[in-house]
Write a structure and sequence with these properties.
275 residues; alpha/beta; Nucleotidyltransferase, domain 5; five-stranded mixed sheet; two-stranded antiparallel sheet; 12 helices
Length: 275
């Protein structure tokens, strides 16, 4: 089966200084943009993170401080990255939990707003884990019958992720072929933010997933403890999480819409089944 696209989708992979979404930085980013007509566009950058790359991270991806010292910072690349992914759905391997949240943080640090409105996300790792329980290298061998050369290099990982998804479409008829179907299948629960601090309950209300207010709605907590939002805004939470909380607070503060006489009449008629 073919990947059914209605608009371009960007497969991407990040190599970073670590795994803390709030504080770690990108050292390499690879993008593979696939268009509905099958055309592809790719770009890979080494990035100066402006902080030390720990040896533990260099041991995994092979990128050292000496390699990136003369490379552009992400702030210098941010507008190019933002333009390349504009209007596109996103896909990656473990991207819902790591790559997308960290990319959002880096863009917002550079002063470029980012959200997932009108975008879908496909996490190829989730499809893989739901179906086979493997790693990226094992998945590449399993689905594509190939050894993954250059594993933990952003470009190699990005291209492997795209190839794995195409192979998954051939293997599993029940996961769908459209971005909507694949996005739904590759999502673990519904989140309001990327990092998973704020989830959505069955009534589509934002709820906290941690701490003393775990399971309670954000609006309920903000009404009970007005200072909680200020505490989170000043604490070490991801920028996107803070943005979501600000939007909820603004929504709560917005004046309630006054119903017109016609709307009141319609509501009464519906309530008492007068139509």
């Amino acid at each position: 089966m073919k990947l059914n696209l209605e608009k371009p989708i960007v497969f991407f992979d990040l190599e970073t200084t670590g795994i803390n979404i709030g504080t770690d930085k990108i050292v390499e980013i690879a993008i593979l943009k696939v268009f509905p007509n099958g055309n592809k566009e790719s770009k890979t950058w080494l990035v100066n993170p402006e902080i030390e790359i720990p040896k533990e991270a260099s041991d995994i991806h092979g990128i050292t401080n000496e390699q990136v010292v003369t490379e552009p910072t992400f702030k210098e690349l941010a507008s190019q990255v933002s333009e390349l992914i504009a209007g596109c759905d996103l896909a990656g391997f473990n991207s819902n939990r790591f790559d997308i949240p960290l990319l959002a943080e880096e863009l917002m640090r550079a002063g470029i707003d980012f959200d997932m409105n009108n975008r879908k996300a496909i996490d190829v790792q989730v499809i893989f884990h739901k179906k086979e329980q493997r790693t990226l290298s094992a998945g590449y061998q399993f689905y594509c019958g190939k050894e993954l050369e250059g594993a933990h290099g952003a470009e190699a990982d990005t291209n492997a992720t795209y190839e794995i998804l195409l192979a998954q479409l051939e293997k599993y008829e029940d996961i769908g072929t459209s971005v909507d179907e694949l996005s739904e299948f590759s999502t673990h629960g519904k989140r309001a933010d990327f990092a998973g601090f704020i989830l959505m309950n069955d009534e589509d209300q934002e709820i906290f997933s941690f701490g003393k207010y775990k399971g309670r709605t954000v609006e309920e907590v903000f009404k009970e403890n007005p200072g909680y939002n200020a505490w989170m805004q000043n604490a070490d939470f991801p920028l996107f999480t803070k943005k979501v909380l600000r939007e909820i607070k603004e929504r709560m503060s917005a004046p309630k819409k006054t119903m017109t006489d016609e709307e009141k009449l319609n509501a009464l008629q519906q309530k008492f089944n007068l139509r």
